[in-house]
Amino acid sequence: MSGPELRKIFPVPFRCPHCGAGNNAVAGWVIEHDILPCQYCSRNIDLSGLEWLNFRRTLDVALQGLQPIYDKMPQIKTGDRATRSGRPRVFHLPSPG
Predict the structure, then answer these.
(1) 5 vs 9, 11, 72, 85, CA distance in Å?
(2) Is 55 exposed, middle or buried (0-12, 13-18, 19+ CB in 10 A)?
(3) Cβ contact 13:23 at 8 Å
(4) Rounded-to-integer distance, Cα 35 and Cα 57, Å
């Protein structure tokens, strides 16, 4: 992996204070922005409060620490996994008794 990929794929759930709907945004967006639009009512959600600032800072540090570990994980490449029809079938034998 190249670059801070975890920031691009790690979802952060949060609730809109206006409509109450659950939202998700990728960590990088949450870390870098003070305001996020609700995916349902389109009103702005303020992430500039002290609690959110502390969370965003902690999340950024945590993802920076995890990134080197994530970079070392073996990645699935195209063709590594058999298609559904190409997988061997597994038959279960009846249990004795």
Answers:
(1) 6, 12, 12, 32
(2) middle
(3) yes
(4) 15
With a CB cutoff of 8 Å and minimum separation 6, the contacts of 42 are none
Radius of gyration of the chain (CA): 21
Total residue count of the chain as it appears in this document:
97
The pLDDT tens digits for 12-60 are: 999 999 999 999 999 999 999 999 999 999 999 999 999 999 999 999 9
3-state secondary structure 43-95: CEEECCCHHHHHHHHHHHHHHHHHHHHHHHCCCCCCCCCCCHHHCCCCCCCCC
pTM above the 0.85 mark?
Answer: no
Domain ranges of the chain: 5-72
The candidate with the shortest Cα–Cα distance to 29, out of 45, 8, 48, is 8
Query: Which tokens go with 21?
Result: 């709907």
